[in-house]
Amino acid sequence: MGFVIIDFKKRRDRETLSGLVPETVRNVDNFIKSYTPEEDLPPSESECAAIEKELMSTTLHEFDEVAGKLWRAKKDLPGRRSRLVIQLKRREGKLFSRFSDDVAELEDLAATMMEECMNRLEDTEEELKVSLPTSTTSIDSAFDELVKDCAEYIEENFPEGVEGMKAYDDNLPNFDALVEIIETKKNEEYPAANADAIPEKLEKVKERSKIMVQKSMNKAIKAQLLKIEKDMSEDDTLPYLDEEAMGDLKNELIEAAREYAESRIDEDFSNDGEYDSDDSEGEDVEGEVDE
After folding, report:
1. Where along the chain is composition biased (Acidic residues) (predicted)?
2. How do the domains of the chain map onto residue ranges?
């Protein structure tokens, strides 16, 4: 009778061990189907691989604990465990397959957003290039504002914002790398370009300042000449000259005044005593110097 009982317990252990493999596999499948990320972001491929690795390790450990108690079926254990390992290996990658579309969409979103940030960087550089030379504060402010704008853009459009993008996966464009590029331009590239642009700009300022001074002097001389011509055209007379002689004297004095004025300025006079000028050029020069 005792042998019958022992045989019954052995058969029960073997049946239990036999059913343990599919039950364990079902538990793994259920985990994969029902897994929900703790965060809003879908798990990356590397995260899925790490989760699966831990799952498989835990599953085998738990299987060994339960199967180890079925000592009456110990001869069946190696074969059953090998079948379980095969079944588990067939499930590698299935977790990521669940989220692969979401991950691809997220990667596309990140790439698009980084492209937009790079476009904003190009726009910032174009604006700076035409303003050089400028103050160091202006350069710093332009790039600091760019970093701020890009960060706000990512915060508004990427799940969990900048930190979510940075922590998600190495395959995603790296916001820190973008900031590093911007910092290099801010602290090295554009300060150097700014310094290189200063000498040429100074020469232009000096030349245009000279032109501005010349035009101001020209205007003053011409205005005074007009006043002199007007004064000489008055009805003043000399008692010892008749009208014709007085007219000739006035014309001679006016011509002498004109010749002297023309020797001091670089613009021609018109036939009627007025002078030609280009006030718009002078205003442009003055405006540029004021910058």
Report:
1. 268-291
2. 2-92, 103-200, 205-290
